[in-house]
Amino acid sequence: MWRGVVRSAALNLRNSRRYSTAIPLPSIIHKRGIDVLHDPWFNKDTGFPLTERDRLGLRGLLPPRVVSFEQQYDRFMESYRSLEKNTLGQSYGVVSLAKWRILNRLHDRNETLYYRVLIDNIKDFAPIIYTPTVGLVCQNYSGLFRRPRGMYFSAKDKGEMMSMIYNWPAQQVDMIVLTDGSRILGLGDLGVQGIGIPIGKLDMYVAAAGINPQRILPVMLDVGTNNQKLLEDRLYLGLRQPRLEGEEYLEVVDEFMEAVHARWPKAIVQFEDFQMKWAFETLHRYRNKFCMFNDDIQGTAGVALAGLLGTVRAQGRPLTDFADQKIVVVGAGSAGLGVLNMAIQAVSRISGSGADPHFFLLDKDGLLTKERKGIDPAAAPFAKTLAETEEMGLREGASLVEVVKKVKPHVLLGLSGVGGVFHEEVLKAMRESDSTKPAIFAMSNPTTKAECTAVDAFKHAGENIVFASGSPFENVDLGNGKVGHVNQANNMYLFPGIGLGSLLSGAHYISDGMLQAAAECLASYMKDEEIQMGILYPSINSIREITAEVAAAVLRAAIGEGLAEGHGDVGAKELEHMSEGEILDHVKHNMWYPIYSPLVHER
Ligand SMILES: NC(=O)C1=CN([C@@H]2O[C@H](COP(=O)(O)OP(=O)(O)OC[C@H]3O[C@@H](n4cnc5c(N)ncnc54)[C@H](O)[C@@H]3O)[C@@H](O)[C@H]2O)C=CC1
Ligand SMILES: CC(=O)C(=O)O
Ligand SMILES: [Mg+2]
């Protein structure tokens, strides 16, 4: 048994060494003695070789035996597997928080080992450090809090941010994920507790894009919360005040962006889980000024578009038929509108025609039409005209069931944040779809907010559907050896590559062309045989490979548009002269891989 564990771990180590440099370069450290053991960036626990123990003043501070990295790895995995065994039969919440705790303790102690186990076991661990468990962690963050991670800028820090940013210990930061906690997954306003999302997203950056963990920065902008329960919670760790609004709010975000830009002008800032009004407002405000993007609007759009194009291929039709697909989008928020924007642009590109009438958008009040009172300006361009709805026998505010029955859509796509909104009647109505392979995308997170479960989708909508969800579900056993494949339609397939490609390009801003290149790369990644089997996205086990491809596509687009200025010692001219293959190699070469590097002490 034990030998088996060792063998498979060794295999994993070999497999994932693909993007590593053969001999690790030394890392300069300014600490000695016990401080080294307490620094998770440099700590190797019992793995410090004797010579290094001498050099860093560690002799006597550790038990005498030197344990190899592989042995440390196996020891952790054994503890993890026993925890799994010991918590069998307990509730989802108890088990997943226990798993999160054991990983979090390793994260806090030894980042090199943490990221290695994460990379090698990404399928098992992504659901813990990312959706769905990260949602539960955010909901319980104030109680779970032990050690800080990332930075917190609050409404009380106005006027101080330019100096505060220098409190961060790293010289260089490449990637920042920023939230104000106002719309955490489908869980609503979680205030300061939303910091779990930037932490989880940046873990995915390290695992998928190989961003060096010493160069990432999770950030919480605490401008208050409108969540009454949190305001009354005695453990709540954030500001106890209602959210700032209007100019007061924007002044805080402006000051933060200026401070980041002043210290790290080339850092990429990913906006994450902002409520819709601020998601769109900040994107418009900063996108030409800073190298930033909004993952919920732009990352999600690319992943959804890749899935939508996949469903056309799954029907055995050419991509030009995308323009004929009838798509019902449920949720007119930042994610749903982002998807519609990108899908409509894709229709124009593919078919050469203008805006397309085959998209139907619903929000909490049903079908959106031009008749809607007080329609949000961002949603207005997608509202149906009276003539269009009358032609379909529909009306303003028609229910989802009515819309599905009348439209017979090829695709039903949920980004509503409402669990179970694709109920039995809706799913059964999808059996009358005009598609030979109707597609159901239940993209809301976490699992409790998915518009339907995978089992219900295959049970009610039929076995010939293509199914995707934002959080992972197991494949569905359809009997007689048949399997209903579950895809994970999550922006994790794009944001790491968008971030890495943009970083290596050194572009001043992230253009539509760079984002489109990312989506197209993902869309063309899967082979026809896989698509025929309903597999629209790569396995999460190959997330490092797909991320390298996406990053290379983004970098190529930046070079093509003349936006690339280069990064580090590779300048614009060198990038321009690289072939496609060389660009991909350049990306891979820049992906950090967790191995212990020799530590050299400098005063
Ligand atoms: N799978 C993925 O990669 C991603 C998933 N999401 C998920 O999408 C969900 C929505 O995110 P945002 O658009 O940013 O939120 P949002 O709050 O901006 O928008 C939610 C929209 O859903 C609508 N809605 C609420 N109840 C509804 C109902 N019963 N029927 C139809 N529509 C209803 C609202 O009116 C609103 O238009 C969240 O659960 C989030 O986790 C978001 C980004 C990426
Ligand atoms: C995946 C993601 O970004 C969200 O659910 O908000
Ligand atoms: Mg998000």
Structure description:
The chain is α/β, with parallel strands linked by helices and 603 residues long. 45% of the residues lie in helices and 11% in strands. It is built from 26 helices and 18 strands. The strands form five sheets. Strands 9-8-7-10-11-12-15 form a seven-stranded mixed sheet, sandwiched between helices. A five-stranded parallel sheet has the order 2-4-3-5-6, with helices on both faces. Strand 16 and strand 17 (570-571) form a beta hairpin. Helix 6 crosses helix 11 and helix 15 (295-314) packs across helix 16 (334-351). The model is unreliable at 1-21 (pLDDT under 50). Bound molecules: 1,4-dihydronicotinamide adenine dinucleotide (NAI), pyruvic acid and magnesium ion (MG). The site of pyruvic acid (PYR) has 9 residues, from helix 15. 1,4-dihydronicotinamide adenine dinucleotide (NAI) binds next to helix 15, helix 16 and strand 8.
